[in-house]
Amino acid sequence: MGKFKLFLLGAISFLLSQTAFSQEQLGIRLDNYTGMDQAWLNPAFVAASPLTFDIHLGGLGMFGENNYAFIRNTSILDMAKNSGKFMSAFDLDGAPAPKGYLVGDIYDNPNKKFLKFTTTFTGPSLMFKIAEKHSVGVFTNMRAAFSVTKIPEVLGFLEYDRKKYGESFEVSPFEAAGAIWNETGIHYGFDIEKSNGHISFGAHLKYNSFLESGFIGIQDNLTVTKISKDSTLINNPAVEFAITTGNLNRVSFDANNKSVDIGKPSIDFYGHGVSADLGASIQIEDNEVEGYRWKAGFSVLDFGMINIKKKAEFHTSSPIPADYMFTLEDLQDAKNLKEIEQTISQNALGNPNASLKAKTFKMGLPSAISLQGDYQFIQNIYVGGALVQPFGLSRYNLTRTAILAVSPRFENRYFSLSAPIVLRDWKSPRMGLAGRLGFISFGTDNIGSFIRKKDFTGTDFYFSVSLNAVNLPKFLSGGRKRSRRSTLGCYGF
After folding, report:
1. Would 88 be classed as within a structural domain?
2. Residue 127 in contact with residue 52, Cβ under 8 Å?
């Protein structure tokens, strides 16, 4: 059991230290000179920006957070110094850790558990203006997301470990979902000039190609009885799960010899779909500052579905048996995922193939609605804010993180600096720091995870590189006097 605990802690800690994406990247989303980086929060922002074109060369963003496991008293900088020196708190048995070692531990608290991480590689994209009213563009991104939320407190490792043999307890519904996909899309925006500002509209139409994806969920309350260290009796289980099997079928293992062979992975697309981002914004200007005095926006993000039709399996426990005895010993001789599925199906439903109901499945993308606001107090000094609220289009969905944020910033054509304060999923707020030097943007919405030594539960960071140009007549006049002939003015280092 000690080796299992160490493996579990190591796996979670690795995910959080290596794979973490800030979904919204607010430090650069409200900046008026980041080009297509603005569009991922609201596509209408691009149509009203002072840029005449934007060539986005690439970027990377990562976010991860959990309340299940943590690494004691450390930070990103501290972990970089002590990479490779990791041990489990269970191995210490209350003794102090050796100097320089990172110690993984598990929370013991009465809270529902969650784990989220996402990663996005923003690929090359291009946007340019036509007649100063229309913005058109193309883009491509590679994205990955995983989330498991509302795990009942009793399924926490320590909480379950304390249960006595023969003791029964209730488990409430929860679900997990994940996917890796590529999106290729087109952008269009339209800007309407008014006497005191602008009204803008924007849209992205995206063609999505899905690699690995899947979900698992418990639909109804169930009763669990701890029988022994390796056996659990589950009463009236209502479990569904779906998964792509292209690469998983290449994985084989030997539990007796504790060996795993992952085979040779391949890149294949198992399904396709269409999604959209839609947005609108309004800018109000006055004579005291250049540009707008205030801006407000509304957007719908990632409106669409995942539709997997190739090398896919959907399993369900229906018809639900009265009870099911889950025993790890029954899986001891299984050599791959298929044998595990068939063993469980045989024991629970009396047939090794009874759980397989379909070879296709659907799930929702991380859809959300968003409200944005921005106010320029004095020249170049802004305070922006955003609200992002996720919603689902299907029974199972990739879950976006709910966000409420306020971000003061200094901004001009060549430089910006912001300090976002971000409240994620209506929990404890975090302070971030972001900046732009010319065409390079970078930041984090959790600066404390880099520099402050404390229990480490997650982090995020992002950076982006673009080449773009300003509409000089609009820029110099503060946007109040449009020139029919746009002049391109590139910043030179």
Report:
1. no
2. no
> Could you write out the DSSP letters of every residue in 102-157?
EEEEE--SSS-EEEEEEEEEEEEEEEEEETTTEEEEEEEEEEEEEEEEEE-GGGSH
Instruction: Please report which helix (H) or strand (E) contains residue 45, including its range.
Output: helix 44-47
pTM over 0.90: no
H/E run at residue 380: none
**Gap between the Cα atoms of 366 and 401, Å rounded:** 9
Tell me which residue of 370, 384, 470 sits closest to 432, measured CA to CA: 384
Q: How many CB atoms lie within 10 A of CB 329?
A: 10
The residue-averaged pLDDT of 132-161 equals 91
Name the pairing type of β-strands 381-390 and 361-364.
unpaired
Q: Percent helix, strand, coil in the chain (nearest 5)?
A: 15, 50, 35
Q: Cis ω on the peptide bond leading into residue 98 (within 30° of 0)?
A: no
Domain count, the chain: 1
Q: Which residue has the tokens 């795990």?
A: 151
| Distant-in-sequence, close-in-space partners of 216: CB < 8 Å, separation ≥ 6 | 175, 176, 177, 239, 240, 241, 242
pLDDT tens track for 201-230: 999 999 999 999 999 998 888 889 989 888
Q: What is the mean pLDDT of the chain?
A: 85
Domain span at residue 54 reads 23-60+113-490
